[in-house]
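Anyone? Bumping this.
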Amino acid sequence: MSTAAANLQLQDAVFVMIAIVTTGAALGVVFLRNIVHNALCLVLTFLGVAAVYFQLNAGFIGLVQILVYAGAISVLIIFAIMLVMDKEINQTNLPIPSLGRRIAGVYITALLVITLVLAIYFTAWPLATGAGAPFDAVGMLAELMLGDYVIAFEAAAVLLLVAVVGAVILAKGVEKQ
Amino acid sequence: MEISLLGTEILLATLGFLALVTGLLPGRAKSITGSMSLAGLLLILVYTIAHFGEEASLFQGIYLVDNFAAYFKMLFLTATLLVSLGAGRYLERFENKKSEFYSLMVFATLGMVIMASAGDFITLYVGLELMTVSFYILTAFLLRDGLSTEAGLKYLVLGAASSAILLFGISLVMAYTGTTVIGATAARLMTEPAVVAGIVLLAAGFAFKISVIPFHMWTPDIYQGAPTPVTNYLSVASKAAAFAAMVRVFMVAVDAAPGLTLSWNLILAILAALTIIVGNLIALVQEDIKRLLAYSSIAQAGYILAGLAAANAYGLKGVLFYALLYVFCNTGAFIIATAVEVDSGSTAIEAFRGLSKRSPALAAIMTICLLSLAGIPPLAGFVGKFYLFAGAIQQGYLWLALIGLIMSMVSVYYYLNVSRVMYIEKAGKQEPVKGSGAFRLALWVCALAAIFLGCYPAPLSNLAQQAIQLFL
Amino acid sequence: MESLFINLSQAFTAWLMSLGLSAGWADALLLAVQWTCIVAIVTLNITILIWLERRVSSFFQERLGPNRVGPLGCFQTVADALKLLTKEDIVPSAADKLIFKTAPALFIIVAVMLYAVIPMGDGMQVVDLNVGLFYFISIGSLSTICLFMAGWGSNNKWSLMGALRAVAQMITYEIPLAFSLLGIVMITGSLRLSEIVEAQSGVWFIILQPVAFLVYFIAATAELNRGPFDMPEAEQELTGGAYTEYTGMRWALFFLAEYTNLVAVSALMSTVFLGGWQGPWLPSWIWIIIKTYLVMMVFFWVKWTFPRIRMDQLMSFSWKFLIPVSLGNILFTGAGIYFCKWMGWC
C-alpha cells in the first residue's frame, strides 16, 4: 500500500469518526428529553462541524464555527432556556407530542432524508480540479468579503443592527405609564 | 465603479439609520421622524425613477443594476410610501416606538431592494434575511396584543424553517455548479438528482415567502395578528420581493440552463392552480377582513405564479404589471381596513356596516380596490389578469387560464360581500371615519392608480416590457 | 542555551527514526511528548504560582502568608495538593452526574489546548497556525460552556447563579477581547503568532497599541474570572459560585484550569504586546518566562488591590465603554495605517 493511499484511508477513518460524533450529537439534540442536554449536544454538533472544516483545510472557518456557534450562539440558547425555565431546574422537559404528530413528523423527516440522501448519492458530482484552496485562505476570504461580496457583507451588518434593535424592542416589553 | 449605481441602497440605509437616530431626540423633536422618513422615501423613489434604464453588472455579476431590478425597486418604494402614509392613526398604537417602526420599514425595503438586484445566491439570501428579520420584529410590534406576539413568534419559527429550506436548496445547487453567481450557474446545471432536489427546495423556500399552497399555513394567522399596516406591507412588498428573486433565479439559472431538462413550468403551473383554487375557496367563508385579505392574497399569489409558470413575454410582463397594481389595490383595501379598525376597534367584516352612509368616499374606494383585485374591467386587475392568463394560454396551459378565470368569478362573491355589508347593512354609528390628509392622499393615489392603469395600461405595460427584456 | 529545546526535540526525533520509525510516526510521538511536557510544566508551575499569589497577596495586605512548610512556605502548595488528592470526591445525589463529572475535565482540556499556538521561544511552538491568534480566542471561548456545565450539573442555586454570571460576563467581554487584538492584526497583516512576534523586533506593540493593551488586559481579567471581576465565584455572596459543590480533585482541576488559563493569557499578552520571546542576552525561552511572570504579577496586583465590582456595572462597563473604545481603536489604527502609507513611512 502506498503512503498516499494509507493517508487517504486515515483521512476517511477520521472523517467517519467525526461524522459519527456529529450525527450522534445531532440526534441527541432532537431526542434527549432534557432541554439543557439538547443544548449541550448542540454544542457538540457545532464542534463536530468545525472538525469537518478543519479536515477540509478550512481552519479559519472552523474557528469561526467554534467561536460563533459553539462559543456564542449556544450560550445564547442556554440563556434563553434559563430565562423561560420552569420552577424546577430538572423539569424542563418538553411536553411529549401526541402519537399522530410523532408519526407525521417521523414520516416527513424520513421522506425528506431518504429523498435527499438518494438524490445526493446518485448524482455524478463534478469533482474540483486543481490544487484546491490555499491553506492561508484568510486573506482571500477578506478580499472576497470586502471586495466582491461587499454588498452582502454590508447588508449583513444592517441585518445585525435590525436584530439588535428588534431584540431591545421585544425584550424591553411594554413601558409602564 | 460609479457609486451612484448603488444610490438607492445607500440612501435607504442612510434613511434607516437617520430614522433610528432621530427617534432618540428628546421631547417633541422626535416627531420629525415620520415626515422625514416619508420625505426621504419620496426622494429615493424619485432618484430611482430618474435612474431607470441604467445597466451595470457590479462585482462580476454578484450585483446587478438593470431595468428589472429598477422596476421592482420602484414598486417596493411605492409600497413603503403608501403603507407609511396610510397607516395614519394606527401608528399611535406603537406608542414610543414610532421611529423604530419607520426605521424597520426602511430596512425591510432595503432588504427587498437587495433581493431584487442580487445576482448571486448569497447576496440574495442576506437581502431576504434582512427583509424577513425586519418583518419578524414588525409583526410582533404590538407588545400589548397577545395575537401580535403570537404572530411574531410563529413567523419567526416558520420563517427560519423556510430560510433553512431555501439555503439547503442553494447549497445543493452551489455544490454542483461550484458558483453562487446566478448567471454563471445556468451553463453548469445538469439534469442530476441533486440539482433537481436543489431546485425543488429553492422553489419551496420561495413558495413559502409568497405563500403558495401548500406552504401557506402561516399566512392567515400572521396576517391577522400583525399590526394592520405591517400586514399590508407584508402582503404586497415581501411577496413582490420574493417574486423578483424567484423570477430572476428561475429565468436566468433554471430556464436558460442548456443541460437541464426539467419541466419546472409545469410544477409551478400546478402549484399556481392549487393556490388559486384553495385560496379563493377558503376566502369565501372568512368573517374577518384581515383573514379575508390574507386568503385573497394567497389566491393573488397564485395568479402571479401562473405568469411565472408561463415564462414568456406575456406571462412575465403580467407578473410585473400585476405585482404593481396589486400594491395599489391591496394597499387601498388595507388602508381602509386600518382606518375602520382604528375607528371600531374590530377587524370583523361586520365593522364595515353602513360605511357608505358614514364615509361614502371610503366605501367607494374600497369597492374599487376589491373589484380590481377580482379582475373586473375596466379596473387595473383585469388588465393584469389578461396578461397573466394570455401568457399561460400561449405556453399551452389553457386549463390553468380556465381555472384562474373561474376562480376569479368565485372571488367576486367574497369581495362584493364586503361591499354588500358597506352599502346595504345599517351602521351602528353615524359619524364619518376619521383620517388625516396623508391617509386621504394615499387612498386617492391607490384608487386613481387602480382606475388609470385599467383604462390606460400602455405606459406601465411598456415599462414592464423593458424590465423583462433581459430574460427573453 | 538558546536552542536547547529545539536540539533536544531534534535529537529525540532522530533517535526515534534511527529505531526504524517513519517520519510521520516520529512526529506524532514528538507531539505527544510535547503535550506531556506542557501538561507537566503547567501542573508543576501552578504549585509555584499559588504559593506566589498567596505570598504576594499577603504582602499587599500586610500579613505573613504561608510560612510554615519549607523555607518561606514554598512547600505549602505541595502539601495542599497532596491533601486535595486524598480528599473524598463527593458527587451530589441530585446532580446531573455526567455533566457534573465531565465539566472539570473539559475545562482543563480547553485550557491546555491554548498552549498549542503560543511561541515559547524562537521556533518553539507546537503548531505555528496561520490563524494562531484567532485560534487562541475561539478555543478560549469554549471555557464558557465548561463553566456553565459545572454550574448546571451541580443542581444548586448558587452554582447556577455563578454559572450564569460567568457566562454572561465571559460572552460580554469576549467582544472587546477580540476587538482589541484586531488593531495588531491590522498592523502586522497576519494572524500567525510567529509573524506577530517578528513584527515587534523594532518596537513592541504596547507602544503602538497602548489602548488595545489596556482593553485586552481588562477584558482578559474578566475572561479569567479574576478579581475585581470574580463575580462568578464571589465567595461572600455565592459561596463559590459554579464550584460550590465540587470537592477534592475535581475542585482542584478547576483551580488548576483557572491558573492554566491565567498563564496562557499572560503568555499571549507578552507575545502580542511585549515582543514575545525577543530580548537581549538571555535565551528566548527565558525571556518569555520572565515576561509572562511579569504580566502575571500585574494580574495579582490588580486582583488584590481593587474591590469586586457589581454585576450590572460590570456589564455596562463592557457594553458602554470597552466595546466603543475598542471599536474606536480599530478605526484609529486603520486611519493611522492609511496615514503611514500616504506619508510613505510603511
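Late reply, but here is one note on the structure posted above: Chain C is about 70% helix and 0% strand.
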